[in-house]
Design a protein that fits this description.
Helices cover 42% and strands 12% of the residues. With 217 residues, it is an alpha/beta fold. The protein folds into two domains: 5-15 and 89-216, HAD superfamily/HAD-like (Rossmann fold); 18-84, Orthogonal Bundle (DNA polymerase, domain 1), CATH 1.10.150.
């Protein structure tokens, strides 16, 4: 039987680092006199750091020089890194470990496909790095989701065909990327927002092992 590649996004799927991104962006926005709400933050899901800053600046109609942008991007990352410094296993989202362990027991491939440039240190902090056969993060790709590059590379690293890959995502851009790549898309979160996904689950506690079993077979 062909081994499948189970590809996971990181932020909002495995760990809730989204809240730390939000705090770091909100701090920058506040300094620029821009109100930045959780609703605004939804627009940044699955989006690169540079594009995220552009979205925030547009909220305040702020024109910035490349030097200013670079300064704010560096500051945002430093703030974010200070927030994630103290992460541990308790930050793993409910049900994730059970799913990862079941896939491992079934001897399938597990890969990460994330825009985060801090994916490896985060997986180390939450002590699950060893479960992954391949990691593709923001340091490895040039195109942001919905471009499927991150998922295509993850599948390549484990020698899996696109149609044998299953992607778990919490962002619209991520679901679109998986669909463009002809992979099976599984939305984790609000099914109204992630309606383009082939399957949807509120979180991993709603996912039965029989679902994973069916995907393998």
């Amino acid at each position: 039987m062909t081994k499948k590649a189970f590809i996971f996004d990181l932020d909002g799927v495995i760990v809730d680092t989204a809240k730390y991104h939000f705090l770091a962006w909100q701090k920058i926005a506040a300094e620029l006199g821009i109100e930045f709400t959780p609703e605004h933050n939804e627009e940044l899901k699955g989006v690169s750091r540079v594009r995220s800053l552009d979205i925030i600046l547009a909220l305040g109609n702020i024109k910035a020089t490349p030097e200013d942008k670079e300064k704010w991007l560096t500051q945002k990352n430093a703030d974010y890194l200070s927030y994630i410094e103290n992460m541990d296993e308790s930050e793993i989202l409910p049900g994730v470990i059970n799913v990862l362990q079941f896939i491992k027991e079934k001897q399938q491939f597990i890969a990460l496909g994330s825009a985060s440039k801090n994916a490896r240190p985060i997986l180390e902090k939450v002590k699950i790095l060893h479960l992954f056969d391949a990691i593709v993060d923001g340091n490895d790709v040039t195109n942001a989701k919905p471009d499927p590059e991150v998922f295509l590379r993850a599948a390549q690293l484990v020698n899996a065909k696109n149609e044998d890959a299953i992607v778990f995502e919490d962002s619209v851009a991520g679901i679109q990327a998986a669909n463009i790549a002809n992979m099976i898309s599984v939305g984790i979160g609000d099914d109204k927002i992630l309606h383009e996904a082939k399957y949807n689950f509120k979180d991993f506690t709603f996912m039965d092992t029989s679902f994973i079993e069916a995907l393998i077979n």
